[in-house]
Specification:
The chain is of the alpha/beta class and 221 residues long. The protein contains seven helices and seven strands; from the N terminus they run ααβαβαβαβαβαββ. The longest helix has 22 residues, at 5-26.
Length: 221
Amino acid sequence: MTTSLPLLVTLFVGTWAVAYVIYRKSRWKTLEPLLPKAYNFGKRQKTFRRALELLDERSSTCLIETGVARYGLRNSKSDGASTAVFGLWAKTNNASLYSVDISPESINGAREAVEELGLLEHVKLVTGDSVQFLENFTDHVDFLYLDSYDYDKHDESTQIASQDHHLKEFKAIEDQLGSDSVVLIDDCDLPGGGKGKTVIEYMIRNGWQVDTSAYQVVLTK
């Protein structure tokens, strides 16, 4: 029995497509074992993984992030899914994550994801201005993740405003950070210096060191 050319072509294309999908997934940058290999964290994987290693080493208990991940794990590659990532770490290690965002819509989206993942006991969602929240926070902070105030790759005025805002956030919580604290800043490898440009310069002048630098930056003392 002979096989028609169109059928052979269809079989070839189908086999190639399956092989390509398998190849792409094999190159995904995951956060196993905290999260299954189905989730790809792309350009944030290196610094997320390093931050998680440091949290493990230092037995961290109090985590804060500014700017929530409203889509849970669904956008792990594009926006990092940080609330889910650090919320899951907090649950696994009996810690607490405080996640603050000025947008009620973003908070509602994050709450849905937190509920779906069973993280309500370990993730505290706060709607409000991040600087004000940090100024009023009195506990020691083991981990600070700065990812608020959207950055624009083309608008210089927005870039400066975002950089200034992140510096204000850090200064607001600086006294609650210690020698064992870890700071992670998102969206740094962008035109104009990214969100971290101004705050990283300030931190280095005040005794902090860059531990890992990629798309994000991890700093320690």
